[in-house]
Design a protein that fits this description.
Blueprint (H helix, E strand, L loop, with lengths): L1 E3 L4 H7 L3 H8 L9 H5 L1 H4 L2 H8 L3 H16 L4 E3 L14 H15 L4 H12 L4 H13 L4 H21 L10 H24 L6 H11 L2 H18 L4 H25 L3 H33 L2 H14 L25 E4 L2 E4 H9 L4 E6 L4 E4 L24 H16 L4 E8 L2 E11 L5 E10 L1 H4 L12
Parallel strand pairs: 1-2
Antiparallel strand pairs: 3-4, 5-6, 5-9, 7-8, 8-9
Helix pairs in contact: 2-6, 7-8, 7-10, 8-10, 10-14, 11-12, 11-15, 12-14, 13-14, 13-16, 14-15
Length: about 475
């Protein structure tokens, strides 16, 4: 037996089942591997090098521990190759013929082939491969640059094929106040709104635009539900190497946002025919998303995330807000949030000396929102002022900034960062109206005296009041 950094975790555990106990004893983050579904998904494309990163264990220590366990319990001779891991590519060991077949199925959907026919083809394909291989293929397709629209088509068919088995699966329970418990209560409240809207739409005539407007205004609260997923759950999933589902779900979120805006616009114009026509696909899309959350996303996250992860998710929830409900407060995380920086620590700056407490207060009292992305495009900081313009939560810290933006704006983000990094541009600015307010957003390249690029500073400001100023005011007016 030869152990090296590139061996897949799932393959190793299949060969030596006793290694499950060895791994879970090393790190709480490996307990997810006790779930067969997770072994067949994450485990099938995660290497030992990736496992060491997830478990926050030195690769050499992980290899040595596994080798000793195999020697003691299987009585085999084990050689360790401590060479640096080759770059991992999810799904790289899969049968290329199966990947090609999957691509043909997606292409058929893209070209307008009937969904039922494609479902039959897909069902035939999955008879020969396990769920883990399908997840790995999806991961590979995303990494190879397959358009998100086609991946979204695959996602819908994938869920449809497995719906029967998903319906029979038990859902892990969570205590009141736990983030997943709160997400599920929101889904129940959203489902109630959808049911009322369907009731209004089914009434004779065109329905009451006033009642529909009220319910669609309530439905617009779903934005907070989606923003918490994007900023709280998705970064943690990415940390464990699960990147395809977040990308697809975020894209579907954007579709729902656009459809909801269209329906509310039609209601505002009193165009009931358009509102009825646009409402049907919107309601179906939201119901499908609820199903995917309840039966796929939440069970996966409960297996994947550690207690510390859930503490961080819980910590950022209140800043974003909730959809249609207030969470129950009974859940008490076992972990204790880290203490704030001591006010005794001082920083010598170019033009003064400030304590860490003073720096924090200064940044949070600025009349602008700021965010900082370092030279590696990693989000390192955002200010937590009393009136934020855009929602932020601690889940974005340490995340690649590209993963914090929807695909439709990603090209612009990358262009700004590329120009800043190349030294060809030093600033970019945008302005627009949002919710009746005039917003000014600027980006600045941060450079050393030697012009070395150290990151990007985003500054956002509500300048509605500033634009309205006229004349002059030279006296204090606190009346």
């Amino acid at each position: 037996m030869k152990l090296d950094a590139n061996i897949r975790v799932g393959k190793l555990v299949d060969q030596y089942p006793f290694l499950l106990d060895t791994l879970t004893a090393l790190s709480e983050k490996f307990t997810m591997l006790r779930n067969p579904l997770m072994r067949k998904t994450v485990g099938q494309f995660a290497t030992l090098a990736k496992a060491a990163q997830i478990g926050e264990i030195a690769l050499a220590d992980l290899l040595e521990t596994l080798a000793n366990a195999i020697r003691e319990q299987a009585g085999e001779t084990v050689e360790i190759d401590a060479a640096e891991a080759a770059p991992q590519r999810a799904g790289s060991e899969l049968d290329p013929d199966r990947v090609a077949k999957l691509k043909e199925i997606i292409k058929g959907l893209h070209e307008g082939k009937g969904v039922e026919a494609v479902k039959r083809e897909f069902a035939e394909l999955v008879q020969n491969v396990g769920p883990g291989e399908i997840a790995a293929m999806e991961q590979q397709l995303v990494q190879e640059g397959l358009p998100e629209e086609e991946i979204k088509r695959l996602c819908d068919v994938h869920v449809a094929v497995f719906r029967e088995s998903l319906d029979r699966s038990s859902r892990p329970e969570t205590p009141p106040g736990h983030p997943v418990h709160t997400f599920r209560r929101e889904n129940a409240a959203i489902a109630d709104v959808l049911a009322r809207i369907r009731g209004f739409l089914s009434e004779p005539g065109t329905g009451d635009p006033g009642r529909l407007s009220i319910e669609f205004t309530r439905l617009a609260e779903i934005e907070k539900h989606y923003v918490r997923k994007e900023n709280q759950l998705f970064p943690r999933m990415e940390h464990y190497g699960v990147t395809a589902p977040p990308k697809v779900m975020w894209s579907i979120h954007d579709d729902i946002r656009a459809q909801l805006k269209q329906v509310r616009g039609a209601l505002a114009r009193n165009d009931m025919a358009a509102a009825h026509a646009q409402a049907a696909p919107l309601l179906t899309a939201i119901e499908d998303m609820i199903y995917k959350e309840e039966n796929i996303l939440f069970p996966m996250c409960l297996e994947l995330l550690s207690q510390d992860d859930w503490v961080n998710v819980h910590r950022g929830e209140q800043e974003i807000g909730y959809t249609l409900i207030e969470p129950e407060s009974a859940w008490q995380p076992a972990a204790t949030p880290p203490a704030r920086p001591s006010a005794l620590n001082a920083l010598p700056l170019d033009t003064g000396l400030l304590t860490l407490e003073q720096v924090n207060l200064l940044l949070t009292h600025l009349p602008v929102d700021i965010s900082f992305v370092d030279e590696h495009d990693v989000v390192r900081y955002y200010s937590e002022g009393p009136a934020r313009i855009f929602p932020r939560s601690p889940g974005v810290i340490g995340r690649q900034v590209q993963n914090c933006h929807p695909s439709k704006s990603l090209h612009m983000v990358n262009r700004i960062l590329e120009e800043f990094r190349a030294g060809t541009k030093d600033a970019a600015e945008f302005w627009f109206e949002m919710g009746g307010r005039f917003i000014h957003v600027r980006y600045f390249a941060m450079r050393t005296v030697e012009r070395e690029y150290r990151g990007c500073l985003e500054v956002s400001q509500d300048v509605t009041g500033i634009r309205a100023l006229t004349g002059s005011q030279r006296l204090l007016d606190w009346a």
